[in-house]
């Protein structure tokens, strides 16, 4: 369920609020301290019980943003002109399915 929520959350670079919300909801009951830094990163701490002073420490890191597009204009036939956000190989684009905007409209690249 969590993987599905994360996969379906919109998290284009610079607008990761949806992914951040899923992460915060998933970890809130399992950590003692949560902080969001000025860049929007989630920093959370789960302290050990201190019973083993030489115990290993673990850090988990991950990206929460994804590549996407910014709509730059709309043509008369409804076709969108877009600009790339993030880096990817343009050869993967034909027939790629998209979710467009806050209303999550379906789209496809032709």
Task: Report on the architecture of this protein.
This protein is of the alpha+beta class. Helices cover 16% and strands 26% of the residues. It has 2 helices and 6 strands; from the N terminus they run ααββββββ. The chain has helices at residues 2-8, 17-27; strands spanning 33-36, 42-45, 68-74, 80-85, 97-100, 105-108. The strands form 3 sheets. A two-stranded antiparallel sheet has the order 1-2. Strands 3-4 form a two-stranded antiparallel ribbon. Strands 5-6 form a two-stranded antiparallel sheet. Strand 1 and strand 2 (42-45) form a beta hairpin. The radius of gyration is 19 Å and the shape is elongated. The two termini are 32 Å apart. The model has no long low-confidence stretch (mean pLDDT 91).
Q: Estimate percent helicity.
A: 10-25%
H/E element sequence: HHEEEEEE
The dominant shape is elongated
Strand residue content = 25-35%
The assigned structural class equals alpha+beta
Specify the number of helices: 2
What's the number of extended β-strand segments? 6
In this structure, how is the largest beta sheet organized? 2 strands, antiparallel
What is the end-to-end distance? 32 Å
